[in-house]
Design a protein that fits this description.
Elements (H helix, E strand, L loop, with lengths): L1 H10 L2 H32 L1 H6 L16 H32 L11 H13 L1
C-alpha cells in the first residue's frame, strides 16, 4: 500500500498536473498553428509559388524524387510562429511581474547615523 500512496502523492502533485495541462494545451495550440499555416499563410502568401510548382500544399514539395523538403519548411514555419507567440506571452508575463514588484521597505530600526549619534551622546555622559 505504501507504493500506491507514494505514486498517488507524486501524480497529484501540482507540478505533474500543471505539466499535463501544459502538454494538452500545447497539443491544441500546435493544431491551431498547423491550421493557421495550411489554411491562411499557404493560400495567401505561398499560393503563387505553389501554383508554379503545380502543388496545392507546401508539404507536397519534394526534391530528388522523394525528399520532402516541403514538410521541413512547414515545420520551420510552425516553429517560428510558436516561438514568436511564446516570446510575446513571456514578454507580457515579465511586464506584469515588473509592475507587481514591491519596492524594498527600509528597515524599521535606527539608521547608522542615529546609532552613531546615540553612541556619541553616551560617550559624552
Amino acid at each position: 500500500m505504501g507504493m500506491i500512496s507514494e505514486f498517488k502523492a507524486f501524480a497529484l502533485r501540482g507540478n505533474v498536473v500543471e505539466l499535463a495541462i501544459g502538454v494538452i494545451v500545447g497539443g491544441a495550440f500546435g493544431k491551431i498553428v498547423n491550421s493557421f499555416i495550411e489554411d491562411v499563410i499557404t493560400p495567401l502568401l505561398l499560393k503563387p509559388a505553389l501554383a508554379a510548382a503545380n502543388l496545392s500544399r507546401i508539404e507536397e514539395l519534394t526534391i530528388f524524387g522523394g525528399v520532402k523538403y516541403g514538410m521541413f519548411i512547414s515545420a520551420l514555419i510552425n516553429f517560428i510562429i510558436i516561438a514568436f507567440v511564446l516570446f510575446l506571452i513571456i514578454k507580457g508575463l515579465n511586464a506584469t511581474k515588473k509592475e507587481e514588484e514591491i519596492t524594498p521597505v527600509a528597515p524599521s530600526g535606527p539608521t547608522q547615523e542615529e546609532l552613531l549619534i546615540q553612541i556619541r551622546d553616551l560617550l559624552k555622559k
